[in-house]
Amino acid sequence: MARRVARDQCLGVIIDVQDFFLSQVETRLRSELESNLKNFARLLGYFRVPTLATLERPIEHKGTLPAEIRKHLGRSSRTFEKDCFDLTKERTIRDFLRRSKKRQIIAVGCETDVCVLQSCLGLLDLGYETYVVEDLLFSSSNDVEASMARMQAEGAIFLTYKSLYYELAEAVEGGHRSKKMIAELGPFPDDLPDFAAQ
Q: DSSP character for 166?
């Protein structure tokens, strides 16, 4: 059976989106990344998908999640500090994952070839269906193809922000499923783009 993102089964994971790492990318790209990650948080917030955000220590050196992203995280979201590159090596994070009772993870963040790679391998090892939003990843390195190929070879499913947007929405506006979604979740935000800026 083909695997699909199911909003009642998924948990968003924003990995180490901090000033220290963002400062290592070109200015225009940084602005686009922050905007795209804010829209990711808004999208998951609308669909009431809980989100786990990680911050690599030391926080006083690497910074926190940008305010524009943080303010769009839902009430059921949590932020954790971590020492390990693989977020699943942190007991408090593993406990949160287990308590969430979700079976799917939607991962974004940095660095593609370090913390995202190791965290996705850890999540897959724990049995989570792991979806990686390809256009919401970044790294200080330009050469991340081997890391992406490794994640995919181990079972991570790559998708784009646009694919995720429409997979969560499920139906065209005005259709029966769309009306049911609006009745349950409220009006869909008109200003939320369906694609990542590039």
A: H
Helical segments of 8-110, H only: 19-22, 27-46, 59-62, 67-70, 91-100
φ/ψ of 98, rounded to 5, equals: -65, -45
| Cα 66 to Cα 170: distance, rounded to the nearest angstrom | 30
Total domain count, the chain = 1
- Structural domain boundaries enclosing 79: 10-185
CATH number of the domain at 83, please. 3.40.50.850
Q: Who wins on pLDDT, 144 or 27?
A: 144
Strand ranges, E, within 33-174: 51-56, 78-82, 104-110, 129-138, 157-159
DSSP state of 151: H
Per this entry, what is the length of the chain? 198
The pLDDT tens digits of the residues spanning 4-37 come to 999 999 999 999 999 999 999 998 899 999 999 9
Q: Is residue 192 part of a domain?
A: no
The verdict on residue 197 lying in a domain is no
Tell me the three state secondary structure of residue 132.
strand
Strands 157-159 and 129-138: parallel
Query: Is residue 196 situated within a structural domain?
Result: no
Does a structural domain hold residue 166? yes
CA of residue 35 relative to chain centroid, distance: 13
